[in-house]
Amino acid sequence: MTVPGTVGFIGGGAMGAALAGGLLEAGTGPDRILIAEPDATRRAALGEQLSVRTFASADEIIRESDYIVLAVKPGVIEGVLAGLETLDTAERALPLWISIAAGVSLSQLESRLPDGARVIRAMPNTPALVGSGATAFVANAAAGEGDRSAARALFEAVGTVWEAPQESLLDAVTGLSGSGPAYVFVFLEALGDAGVRMGLPRDAAYQLACQTVFGAAQLALESGRHPGSLKDQVTSPGGTTIAGLERLEAAGFRAAIHSAVEAATRRSRELGE
């Protein structure tokens, strides 16, 4: 499913480029994707890589786009939105605003946009860079079903999507899937290093570790079975796996994951205050 209309990106960083590339692969024409990127070198690279129109400022993006993706860091979102609350809307309908700035609330966005602005707040994660992202989003009261469908189509171009029933849940999404790739990378590094400690060549250890995590996740997704059930399937009585699991439990593996997600969720809430 493609996004109908023209999509403008304010910010041409890694996530903005990933979303634009996902739209292209999903069938959106390059003439319907615009990117505003102030860095000249990055702007030229995006134009060459994606064959889309690029601009130094957001002015033309805002005038031409049906959807505006705010693909910038939370710290610069205020500057990007400065003055937009007085945007002249006489010539054309307001675009749908889609923000991926972590911790920036719908109310904060609405306060910087014209009255009645339709706004989507989303939390994608970095695996979107390879088309395997996990994104959650929530819409404000002004956004309609068509707006939510457009947001879903945008993020489905780079992975899976979940629409949150309430905005407060996006903090937990940030703590789980937003920050989650970092937890997995630490696990991958530790799993590979453990293989090296047991005598495996380093390249083989990391290859096996990465494929093991990838395959396990794919099995869980495609089978639809509870992870605990899949864990039990691997764990024979008195076997090697139960010996390893016993050590993970003794080291507080589950509790550490719970604490990590809780800490990241709490920090997301603090950033939004």
Describe this structure in words.
Helix content is 51%, strand content 14%. The chain has 273 residues and is of the alpha/beta class. An eight-stranded mixed beta sheet has the order 3-2-1-4-5-6-7-8. Helix 1 links the parallel strand 1 and strand 2. Helix 7 packs across helix 12. The two termini are 36 Å apart. The model has no long low-confidence stretch (mean pLDDT 92).
Unreliable spans? none
- The shape, in one word, is elongated
* Distance, first to last CA: 36 Å
CATH topology of the largest domain: Rossmann fold
- What would you say the CATH architecture of the largest domain is? 3-Layer(aba) Sandwich
- The fraction of residues in strands falls at 5-15%
